[in-house]
Write a structure and sequence with these properties.
This protein is mostly helical. It has helices at about 5-45, 45-50, 65-95, 100-115, 115-135, 145-165, 170-180, 185-215, 215-220, 240-245, 250-290; strands at about 55, 60. The radius of gyration is 23 Å and the shape is globular.
Length: about 290
């Protein structure tokens, strides 16, 4: 084996070991969470746990359905607000913006991704909560306020990954479209965007993961009331905030039920990833066939 082949062999084995180690770490974490949650599932029942409407540890009630619905409400409302803005910004920066504008926007977006969650939460608590209270009534602590904060937090992720997907589209596609008489907008709409769609869906997947897993900022602005909200201007508690709020003093079955909440959160994320990957593969294969 010559020196080049030996180096390639070492790199391949190193990458393989790294991949296996990553899977091993994930499995260890998953096994630990499930093992800690089993006592609650055995005593309370898994089906009752995920369908119960009441979370009252003092009364032995551990239903997380309201928090499941709350997490989904907050996440998808944040996506509704963030995705269109993110995609338009990514298209503008990659296809339309002059270099000077691009050089200004890029560090601004990178700065947004580097701001700590507590800063977002504090801004929401001191600015957005009073503003929502004055504009729409209620306490201001609501699904809408939490989603608004999350939409800003996931913007950099979706914009950056979408930009990479758009940049990866071969330049020949755009040149061919323009050569056939298409306008710039037509080439973006019918050629560049559809071709980059699998990468854009990946960006949205990452945004979902960031939004549904966010804790600190949501604690500060969501109101943390265990209920299925009747409107987006009512308070809500998510699965992540429930764990963060109560883990510090939980014991016994209550402690185990919080790990059960983590298991439910993990299941939701896996389901969302399966759905998103199915859509990504469907569109990716369709685009590959069309090309």
């Amino acid at each position: 084996m010559n020196e080049n082949n030996y180096g390639e062999f070492i790199i391949k084995k190193g990458l393989f070991i790294t991949s296996i180690f990553s899977i091993f770490v994930i499995l260890i974490i998953l096994i630990f969470i499930i093992s800690q949650a089993i006592p609650a599932f055995q005593e309370y029942g898994f089906l009752q746990f995920i369908t119960g409407m009441v979370w009252s540890p003092s009364e032995g009630q551990y239903g997380v359905l309201a928090m499941i619905v709350g997490s989904i409400y907050v996440t998808f409302l944040a996506l509704i607000m963030a995705v269109p803005l993110s995609l338009l910004c990514a298209i503008f920066m990659e296809e339309i913006a002059p270099n000077k504008i691009r050089l200004i926007l890029k560090p601004v977006i990178q700065t947004l991704s580097g701001i700590p969650s507590v800063v977002y939460g504090f801004f929401g608590l001191t600015v957005l909560v009073p503003l929502v209270r004055q504009s729409f009534g209620g306490t201001g602590f609501s699904v809408f306020t939490a989603s608004l904060i999350l939409s800003v937090m996931i913007l950099p992720t979706i914009i950056s990954v979408s930009q990479d997907a758009i940049r990866a589209v071969p330049g020949e596609y755009k040149e061919a479209a323009l050569g056939l008489g298409s306008t710039q907008w037509q080439s973006i709409r019918h050629i560049i965007f559809p071709t980059a769609l699998p990468g854009i869906i990946t960006a949205i997947i990452l945004g979902i993961g960031r939004a549904i897993g966010e804790t600190l900022a949501v604690i500060m602005v969501a109101g943390n009331v265990v209920q299925i909200p009747g409107s987006i201007f009512e308070p809500v508690r998510t699965l992540t905030t429930n764990i963060a709020l109560e883990m510090g003093y939980a014991t016994g079955i209550h402690y185990s039920a919080l790990f059960g909440t983590a298991v439910v959160l993990f299941i939701i994320i896996v389901i969302l990833l399966i759905i998103a990957n199915y859509i990504q593969n469907k569109y990716g294969l369709g685009l590959g066939a069309s090309r």
